[in-house]
Write a structure and sequence with these properties.
50% helix; 7 helices; Endonuclease, Chain A; 3-stranded antiparallel sheet; 2 domains
């Protein structure tokens, strides 16, 4: 049974879970979630750009459309938000309160899909790096240091092959 109080922002659903937004407000909220040029991507890209590192963003030619790609070094970088990609999933999935079955299925699918993309990119010779959003926001410099280290390794490997 679905009960909606029109004078209130509380919505009661048939599973006795509570959402503080109306279905229309929730729909608008979900539509506003971006898949590219997110805050965490921009923070990391700005740090890389300051260091003089140039990259492609949201590369459609590669599986999973990595957020940042260094084509010559074959390095693919993903900036994963904690909710959508299942950060600390074994503990956090119990905290989902509304539409629990749907969200668990959705996020676990995302996690499997991320692993499949990692395997496809690795099969194409790419090194795949994934950063959690909280890693990027707390210390983008450390994330950029890791990327620079991997780029330097790739450069050293390719120069060894030329000799």
């Amino acid at each position: 049974m679905l009960t909606v109080w029109t004078n209130s922002i509380t919505v009661y659903t048939d599973s006795f879970t509570m959402d503080k937004l109306t279905p229309e407000q929730r729909r608008r909220n979900m539509q506003a979630i971006k898949s590219k040029d997110t805050k965490i991507e921009i923070i990391l890209r700005n740090e890389l750009w300051k260091r003089g590192l140039r990259y492609r963003k949201n590369c459609k030619d590669l599986p999973g459309h990595p957020d940042i790609v260094f084509m010559r070094s074959k390095l693919a970088v993903f900036c994963d938000s904690e909710f959508w990609h299942g950060y600390d999933w074994s503990n956090r999935k119990d905290n989902i309160r509304t539409n629990k079955e749907f969200w668990i299925r959705k996020i676990e699918y995302n996690m499997r899909h991320d692993e499949e993309i990692n395997q496809k990119l690795t099969g194409l010779g790419y090194t795949v790096v994934r950063f959690w959003g909280n890693e990027i926001t707390k210390n983008p410099e450390i994330c950029a240091d890791k990327i620079e280290e991997l780029l330097n390794r790739a450069t050293a490997r390719s120069s060894n092959l030329i000799i």
